[in-house]
Amino acid sequence: MTSGSAHGGDGTTTVSVHGLGYVGLPTAALFANNGCTVYGIDTQPDKLETLRTEGADFRESELNDYVDRVLGTDALRLRERPVQSDYHLVCVPTPFDHERGAADLSYVRAAAEGIAPKLRPGDTVIVESTVPPGTTANVVGETLERNGDLLRETFNLAFCPETVLPGSILDELRGNDRIVGGIDGEATAAARDLFADAVDGDIHTAPDAATAEFAKLAQNTHRDANIAIANELAKVARDHGVVPRPAFDLANEHPRVDLLHPGPGVGGHCLPVDPLYLGQHSDHVQLIEHARAVNDGMVEYVQELLGDALGSLAGKRVAVFGLAYKGNVADTRNSPARRFVETLAEPTAKVATDGGESAVDVRVHDPHVTDAAVDLWSESAALAGADALVFMTDHDEFTGLDPEAVVERMDDNVVVDARGLTDESWHEAGLDVRRL
Ligand SMILES: NC(=O)c1ccc[n+]([C@@H]2O[C@H](COP(=O)([O-])OP(=O)(O)OC[C@H]3O[C@@H](n4cnc5c(N)ncnc54)[C@H](O)[C@@H]3O)[C@@H](O)[C@H]2O)c1
Ligand SMILES: CC(=O)N[C@@H]1[C@@H](OP(=O)(O)OP(=O)(O)OC[C@H]2O[C@@H](n3ccc(=O)[nH]c3=O)[C@H](O)[C@@H]2O)O[C@H](CO)[C@@H](O)[C@@H]1O
After folding, report:
1. Which runs of E-coded beta strand occur in 296-360?
2. 47 has catalytic annotation
């Protein structure tokens, strides 16, 4: 059943966005900036209050402007509870529950329970949260039906994944192609119409919601597995006495080869988690799991490189540059750098002194992160008297460092470069550089 409403332009189409996080808030602004009347709904009153008083706080100033332009106007109204709307977009968290080995769909269920009593015939519910295949039709569909007055045939239900790249959210929000898959043709058409009016990219329709859900997971699984190949090849290269990155550059001269960059592992909100959703109803997940393990093992590998270079870690001062999960963002969710810092500072067998106490003095410097959970140091204070410097994140600020000035501040000369930030000049400055 499709909605008869016109989309965008005159404010007559109403869109509720449930969950105002990294995905939901920009999405709410997208439709509000395109002439819809948007209700931004979040269950955290504090979050709504902060938005009202301080505005958006993304590390992309253009995105903040884009959101703030409509925040507090009639185009984007903030609410704690669901209201009636032509469209309901579900952008709530879907964390992975490692104990159960399954996606935690409790937020998605709660959102659907809240939407159900507000649904009218012809309204459309679109799931944007990343979910295991089948969730939209089964979990969301059943929850909506059970908690409201409408039969499934009378409202539209579709999945439309979000693919914005943190760091370039605004450009990707407006420019990316979209996939839409409804539980029937009318639902697909209703979802397609909404996005077609708001984004510049093409809209690709999937045969059903499960195919769209699978396609989203396939994208992130593909990237995770390709990074794992790069990481494994980098370790193998070092076993052969070969420096990985120049070898990769040569390999990539082949027209059908495109090796990604090795690094200290894969972090962020999506790649370390999304591949796991595929194993929920399938016994055929092998390479995908192995790729996850390879990527997760890179933190330990960087620690090994450091240990090899220093002899023993006990009593050493280590400057770690970068806490964010990737360059030029402030996000530390699932960050390999964070795990590296935590293990290094822990009293483990590997790094313990005879007394069994942690003896590593870790000093983290990250010009993007303001994370109260970890003590952060300025560049020069982190380097002062350090035995080793480890690059864990490829922030632009680190590419401009002068190796002569670095070696001058340090006590010893070890550099472990997990991000390809150093070149020959670092050797020439007298630094012992171990590169991934
Ligand atoms: N962050 C990304 O880059 C990204 C990209 C693509 C897809 N995704 C997916 O999008 C979804 C949302 O991710 P996020 O990063 O925006 O999460 P987030 O944690 O930043 O934001 C989620 C928001 O939902 C709110 N919320 C929870 N339950 C609610 C409910 N019942 N009703 C209304 N609001 C509720 C929370 O208070 C929070 O503000 C996840 O499934 C994620 O996997 C994320
Ligand atoms: C398929 C795809 O592109 N999906 C994107 C991805 O966004 P992301 O920010 O998580 O993605 P990346 O930039 O790939 O970073 C991930 C980690 O991998 C490390 N890395 C990267 C490249 C490399 O060559 N070597 C590496 O080691 C990097 O440092 C970081 O830790 O998921 C979002 C949510 O679903 C999507 O919306 C978004 O489209």
Report:
1. 317-321
2. no
7 CA distance to ligand 2 middle (Å): 33
Q: Number of folded domains in the chain? A: 3
Q: What domain range includes position 139?
A: 14-207
pTM of the model: 0.94
Q: Which pLDDT tens digit goes with each residue over 69-85? A: 999 899 999 999 999 99
Most confident option among 6-15, 66-75, 353-362:
66-75
What value of ipTM does the predicted structure carry? Answer: 0.98
Look up 91 and say whether it is catalytic: no
- Residue 332 CB–ligand 1 contact under 6 Å: no
Q: Is 42 in the pocket of ligand 1 (CB under 6 A)?
A: yes
**Tens-digit pLDDT profile for residues 91-133:** 999 999 989 989 999 999 999 999 999 999 999 999 999 999 9
Nearest CA to ligand 2 atom 32: 270
Give Cα 232 to chain centroid, integer Å. 22
Residue 275 CA to ligand 2 center (angstroms) comes to 13
Report the b/e string of 349-371 with b at 16+ CB within 10 A.
eebbeeeeebbbebbbbbbbbeb
Residue 1 belongs to a domain:
no
